[in-house]
Amino acid sequence: MRFDTLVAIALVFIPFSLTSIGGGAAIVAGIQHETVTVHAWVNSREFLDLFAVSRAAPGPGMMLATVIGWKVAGWLGAFVATLALFVPSSMLCYSVFKLTNHHRDKKWHRAMREGLAPVGIGLIIAGVLSLFRLADGGVTAFVIAGLSGVILYFAPRFPVLGVLALGGLAAMLASTLSTWVSAL
Amino acid sequence: MTSPVPASPLETPRLRSLFLLCFKIGVLSFGGGLSGWLYKEFVLSKRWIDEEDFSSSLAISQMLPGANVVNLVICMGEQLRGPVGALACVLGFLVGPFFAVVGLCQLFDALAGYPLLPVISDGVAFAAMGLLIIMCVHGVRRAMRFPPSIITIAVTAILVGIFRFPLIPVACVIAPISVALAWRRI
């Protein structure tokens, strides 16, 4: 039973490892679909919490897989999910780097670099859309995400942890305010 | 542009130094933007890698699947110490965040009774979405130079984000078409 779960975790994350073009943000939509809808390992609420935790912790955003693995099957689950998500892409990167680094000025190499970039961006946009749908946070979600985007766009050196903390604070204020307003 | 790195022979670091440097960057890496930090350490401070090798490694790391920084430290490790070096870098980089993220998760669960926690967590997630939106804005602006890229972005986003087509088949169909379009243009 437990072993089956570990195998299932590996089978879910290995294909995502090889499609995470542009990094972990590109596969948020896919991971959400597999872990919430298909396997029902976590519910929407938990998925959103885990997303928030993985963004507030150090390391690449792909550590979202680590916390989902941990939630589903403890430390072993976290370990398997991490390996499943990082080993295939790492081996691919290692091989491609070793084999093609000498050809980096060639035309096919440039075509690959420039052709894959927009696919990665499209996937990230899809990830944002599915997170908005999942969060169902209404105006608050749009305002906080928009403000955080504006801050980081115009002040790229602003610490990310600061933006995340402000987001948490803003949501808390908004919720307290709406409680007061409805009590009036 | 002149290179800030002198033409002196580059040093070969020890495996332990590679591991420790990557560990340091890993545990302190909040929210991305780490390529700049790696550049500063590997190229400017330690002078292990030269400018041109760094930028071609960066291009490969960004185009391939996987976390960009993880791919980048793999390329650094391979250039400096071969396969063992790549392994030392990637392990060093990931071991800290692995324990940190699970630790944070446990802390989150320990606070689960606190009624405002889901609200705060939502707020953090919304702010994190802002980070993703920035990546989209920069990406779309880069793609403006070649309009078909905009169509690639839009089709991918609509199929996966709105019609909820499964991500992997969509990426496998669109990626080769997009590379072919880039090939014809260059």
Automatic annotation (TrEMBL), chain A:
Entry protein name: Chromate transporter
Ranges that cross the membrane: 72-94, 115-132, 138-155, 162-183
Which cellular compartments is it found in?
Answer: Cell membrane
Species: Phyllobacterium trifolii
Q: Which GO terms describe its cellular component?
A: plasma membrane
PANTHER family linked = CHROMATE TRANSPORT PROTEIN-RELATED, CHROMATE TRANSPORTER
Please report which protein family the annotation says this sequence is part of: Belongs to the chromate ion transporter (CHR) (TC 2.A.51) family.
Primary localisation category? membrane
Q: How does it sit in the membrane?
A: Multi-pass membrane protein
The UniProt keywords, alphabetically, are:
Cell membrane, Membrane, Transmembrane, Transmembrane helix
Q: Which InterPro entries match?
A: CHR_Transporter (IPR052518), Chromate_transpt (IPR003370)
Give the superkingdom in one word: Bacteria
> Which GO molecular-function terms appear in the entry?
chromate transmembrane transporter activity
From TrEMBL, chain B:
Give the molecular function GO annotations: chromate transmembrane transporter activity
Organism expressing this protein natively: Phyllobacterium trifolii
Name of protein: Chromate transporter
Q: Report the membrane topology from the UniProt record.
A: Multi-pass membrane protein
Q: Which UniProt keywords apply?
A: Cell membrane, Membrane, Transmembrane, Transmembrane helix
Concerning Pfam families, the annotation shows:
Chromate_transp
TM segment ranges: 18-39, 84-104, 116-138, 150-183
Q: What start and end residues bound the annotated signal peptide?
A: none
